[in-house]
Design a protein that fits this description.
It is built from 2 helices and 10 strands; from the N terminus they run βββββββαβββα. Strands 4, 5, 6, 7, 8, 9 and 10 form a 7-stranded mixed sheet that branches. It has a 3-stranded antiparallel sheet with strand order 1-2-3, with no helix packed on it. The model has no long low-confidence stretch (mean pLDDT about 95). The longest helix has 13 residues. It starts with 19 loop residues before the first strand and ends with a helix. The protein has 2 domains: about 40 residues, no CATH class; about 130 residues, Nucleoside Triphosphate Pyrophosphohydrolase (Alpha-Beta Complex), CATH 3.90.79. About 15% of the residues lie in helices and about 40% in strands. The protein is mostly beta strands. The radius of gyration is 19 Å and the shape is elongated.
Protein backbone atom coordinates (compact mmCIF):
# COMPACT_ATOMS: atom_id res chain seq x y z
CA UNK A 1 0.00 0.00 0.00
CA UNK A 2 1.31 3.44 -0.92
CA UNK A 3 1.95 5.91 1.86
CA UNK A 4 0.17 9.23 1.84
CA UNK A 5 2.40 11.77 0.01
CA UNK A 6 2.38 13.94 3.15
CA UNK A 7 3.10 11.09 5.59
CA UNK A 8 6.26 12.87 6.80
CA UNK A 9 4.30 15.95 7.89
CA UNK A 10 2.77 15.63 11.37
CA UNK A 11 2.50 19.30 12.34
CA UNK A 12 0.16 21.88 10.86
CA UNK A 13 2.14 24.53 8.93
CA UNK A 14 -0.30 27.25 10.06
CA UNK A 15 -0.83 26.68 13.79
CA UNK A 16 2.02 24.23 14.53
CA UNK A 17 -0.18 21.69 16.33
CA UNK A 18 0.52 17.94 15.92
CA UNK A 19 -3.00 17.50 14.56
CA UNK A 20 -2.30 17.29 10.83
CA UNK A 21 -4.24 14.24 9.60
CA UNK A 22 -5.12 12.70 6.23
CA UNK A 23 -8.20 14.23 4.65
CA UNK A 24 -8.03 12.22 1.42
CA UNK A 25 -5.33 10.77 -0.87
CA UNK A 26 -3.97 14.21 -1.79
CA UNK A 27 -4.66 16.43 1.21
CA UNK A 28 -4.09 16.75 4.94
CA UNK A 29 -6.17 18.79 7.35
CA UNK A 30 -5.47 20.24 10.76
CA UNK A 31 -8.12 19.14 13.25
CA UNK A 32 -7.16 22.07 15.48
CA UNK A 33 -7.42 25.10 13.14
CA UNK A 34 -9.12 23.60 10.07
CA UNK A 35 -6.34 24.37 7.57
CA UNK A 36 -6.38 22.03 4.54
CA UNK A 37 -3.24 21.53 2.48
CA UNK A 38 -3.60 20.01 -1.00
CA UNK A 39 -0.43 18.31 -2.09
CA UNK A 40 0.57 18.86 -5.74
CA UNK A 41 3.68 17.70 -7.58
CA UNK A 42 6.70 19.93 -8.08
CA UNK A 43 7.46 20.80 -11.69
CA UNK A 44 10.74 19.59 -13.18
CA UNK A 45 12.26 19.57 -16.67
CA UNK A 46 14.63 17.29 -18.57
CA UNK A 47 16.08 17.97 -22.01
CA UNK A 48 16.99 15.86 -25.00
CA UNK A 49 19.59 18.22 -26.51
CA UNK A 50 20.35 17.65 -30.21
CA UNK A 51 23.02 19.17 -32.40
CA UNK A 52 22.90 19.71 -36.17
CA UNK A 53 24.31 16.19 -36.72
CA UNK A 54 21.40 14.65 -34.78
CA UNK A 55 23.54 13.59 -31.83
CA UNK A 56 22.36 13.90 -28.23
CA UNK A 57 24.20 15.53 -25.36
CA UNK A 58 23.95 13.61 -22.08
CA UNK A 59 25.42 14.23 -18.66
CA UNK A 60 26.72 11.95 -15.94
CA UNK A 61 25.11 12.67 -12.56
CA UNK A 62 27.47 14.28 -10.05
CA UNK A 63 25.16 13.79 -7.06
CA UNK A 64 22.71 11.33 -5.56
CA UNK A 65 20.27 10.01 -6.43
CA UNK A 66 21.83 8.00 -9.22
CA UNK A 67 25.34 9.48 -8.86
CA UNK A 68 27.53 8.29 -11.73
CA UNK A 69 24.67 7.23 -14.00
CA UNK A 70 23.62 8.90 -17.23
CA UNK A 71 21.03 11.66 -17.18
CA UNK A 72 19.44 14.35 -19.29
CA UNK A 73 20.25 17.95 -18.34
CA UNK A 74 17.42 19.31 -16.25
CA UNK A 75 16.09 20.08 -12.81
CA UNK A 76 13.32 21.77 -10.86
CA UNK A 77 11.32 24.68 -12.25
CA UNK A 78 11.85 27.86 -10.20
CA UNK A 79 9.01 30.03 -8.95
CA UNK A 80 7.53 32.29 -11.68
CA UNK A 81 9.43 30.36 -14.40
CA UNK A 82 7.90 28.53 -17.37
CA UNK A 83 8.98 25.04 -18.33
CA UNK A 84 10.76 26.43 -21.39
CA UNK A 85 12.60 29.02 -19.27
CA UNK A 86 13.61 26.31 -16.79
CA UNK A 87 14.87 24.12 -19.65
CA UNK A 88 17.05 26.95 -21.01
CA UNK A 89 18.38 27.80 -17.53
CA UNK A 90 19.12 24.19 -16.55
CA UNK A 91 20.88 23.47 -19.86
CA UNK A 92 22.98 26.63 -19.38
CA UNK A 93 23.80 25.75 -15.74
CA UNK A 94 24.77 22.14 -16.45
CA UNK A 95 26.45 22.47 -19.86
CA UNK A 96 27.12 26.16 -20.57
CA UNK A 97 25.13 25.88 -23.80
CA UNK A 98 22.41 28.22 -25.04
CA UNK A 99 19.51 26.40 -26.68
CA UNK A 100 17.99 27.80 -29.87
CA UNK A 101 14.79 25.79 -30.05
CA UNK A 102 12.81 24.11 -27.30
CA UNK A 103 9.87 21.83 -28.06
CA UNK A 104 7.70 20.16 -25.42
CA UNK A 105 7.46 16.38 -25.88
CA UNK A 106 5.57 14.78 -22.96
CA UNK A 107 5.44 14.52 -19.16
CA UNK A 108 5.90 11.68 -16.67
CA UNK A 109 4.95 11.67 -12.98
CA UNK A 110 7.86 10.72 -10.75
CA UNK A 111 9.03 10.41 -7.16
CA UNK A 112 12.45 12.02 -6.70
CA UNK A 113 14.26 10.89 -3.55
CA UNK A 114 15.93 13.86 -1.88
CA UNK A 115 17.75 13.45 1.45
CA UNK A 116 15.26 10.83 2.67
CA UNK A 117 12.26 12.82 1.47
CA UNK A 118 10.01 11.79 -1.40
CA UNK A 119 9.47 14.73 -3.75
CA UNK A 120 6.53 14.02 -6.04
CA UNK A 121 7.32 15.63 -9.38
CA UNK A 122 5.80 16.10 -12.80
CA UNK A 123 8.79 15.78 -15.12
CA UNK A 124 8.32 17.71 -18.36
CA UNK A 125 10.49 16.54 -21.25
CA UNK A 126 11.69 18.84 -24.02
CA UNK A 127 13.70 18.43 -27.19
CA UNK A 128 16.18 21.31 -27.46
CA UNK A 129 18.54 22.21 -30.29
CA UNK A 130 21.99 23.77 -30.37
CA UNK A 131 24.34 24.27 -33.34
CA UNK A 132 27.11 22.12 -31.86
CA UNK A 133 28.44 20.73 -28.58
CA UNK A 134 32.02 22.08 -28.88
CA UNK A 135 31.59 24.59 -26.03
CA UNK A 136 29.79 22.22 -23.64
CA UNK A 137 31.32 21.88 -20.20
CA UNK A 138 30.00 19.85 -17.28
CA UNK A 139 28.98 22.06 -14.36
CA UNK A 140 26.51 22.25 -11.45
CA UNK A 141 24.85 18.79 -11.11
CA UNK A 142 26.71 17.33 -14.11
CA UNK A 143 30.02 15.49 -13.57
CA UNK A 144 30.70 14.78 -17.25
CA UNK A 145 29.38 15.43 -20.77
CA UNK A 146 28.76 12.59 -23.22
CA UNK A 147 27.64 12.73 -26.84
CA UNK A 148 25.73 9.78 -28.26
CA UNK A 149 23.55 8.84 -31.20
CA UNK A 150 19.90 8.41 -30.10
CA UNK A 151 19.74 4.83 -31.39
CA UNK A 152 22.63 3.78 -29.11
CA UNK A 153 20.87 4.80 -25.89
CA UNK A 154 19.89 2.09 -23.42
CA UNK A 155 17.37 3.09 -20.75
CA UNK A 156 19.24 0.91 -18.22
CA UNK A 157 22.22 3.31 -18.34
CA UNK A 158 20.10 6.06 -16.75
CA UNK A 159 19.75 6.23 -12.99
CA UNK A 160 16.33 7.83 -12.56
CA UNK A 161 13.09 5.99 -13.33
CA UNK A 162 11.35 8.82 -15.20
CA UNK A 163 14.43 9.38 -17.37
CA UNK A 164 14.57 5.67 -18.26
CA UNK A 165 10.91 5.81 -19.30
CA UNK A 166 11.50 9.03 -21.27
CA UNK A 167 14.44 7.49 -23.16
CA UNK A 168 12.20 4.55 -24.16
CA UNK A 169 9.48 6.92 -25.41
CA UNK A 170 11.96 9.19 -27.20
CA UNK A 171 13.54 6.29 -29.09
CA UNK A 172 10.08 5.18 -30.29
CA UNK A 173 9.33 8.56 -31.92
Amino acid sequence: MKQHPLHQFAYCPVCGQPTFVERNEKAKMCTHCGFVYYFNPSAAVACFIRNAAGELLLVRRAKEPGKGTLDLPGGFVDMYESGEEAAAREVREETGLEIHQCRYLFSIPNIYPYMGFEVHTLDQFFECHVADFSQAQAADDAADILVRRPETLSPDEFGLQSIREAVKRYKMQ
